[in-house]
């Protein structure tokens, strides 16, 4: 064989590579699936009215003297912002902020088929729009009520406790808690019925 002559080399196919690390996914063990107790997080606290009356933030926002301001489209000229604000109100939503607290809110209004929302009133006072909006804040059903000057895009508003909405949310909360308690009881009953069988099997 001459120097520097290429030598043919046969390379066998490599076998399946097996990592020494455990697999990322372990299949579930055989047998019936374990029961899952799912609880849907409530949207409201158990005693909404007490929280609304005692919480310092709610107490501040409940004062009608709290100044509010439209915060949408801040980079646009004043006239365009006025048009955008009125257009948003008619479309069913707008963005406002409580000036003193710095709290920003995205308000939506009750839709009305074939017309403007009853929560938006341009006719109550010339040059102003009166607004109402219902929502849940920090686990409490509240209603925003106030008005804004259509020229300056600021005005006065406050939060009120929304008793009607709170009543509905409380009923849904109680229903969800009852369902969860029933699932807990069912789970405990199954566990108790399984234990004697397991004990008997172990004794054998």
Describe this structure in words.
The chain is of the alpha+beta class and 204 residues long. It has a domain at 48-166: Polyomavirus Enhancer Binding Protein 2, Chain: A (Beta Barrel). Helix content is 33%, strand content 23%. It is built from 4 helices and 7 strands, in the order H-H-E-H-E-E-E-E-E-E-H. The chain has a 7-stranded antiparallel sheet.
> What's the level 1 CATH class of the domain at 48-166?
Mainly Beta
SSE order: HHEHEEEEEEH
Mean pLDDT: 81
Strand order of the largest sheet: 3-2-1-7-6-5-4
Question: Which range does the strand content fall in?
Answer: 15-25%
Rg over CA atoms: 32 Å
Largest sheet: 7 strands, antiparallel
Q: Could you say which structural class the secondary elements and strand pairing correspond to?
A: alpha+beta
The counted number of beta strands is: 7
List keywords for this structure.
204 residues, alpha+beta, Polyomavirus Enhancer Binding Protein 2, Chain: A, seven-stranded antiparallel beta sheet, 4 helices, 23% strand
Short description:
The protein has 204 residues and is an alpha+beta fold. It contains 4 helices and 7 strands.
SSE blueprint:
Elements lengths: L47 H7 L1 H6 L5 E4 L7 H14 L1 E6 L4 E6 L11 E2 L6 E10 L2 E10 L4 E8 L1 H41 L1
Antiparallel strand pairs: 1-2, 1-7, 2-3, 4-5, 5-6, 6-7
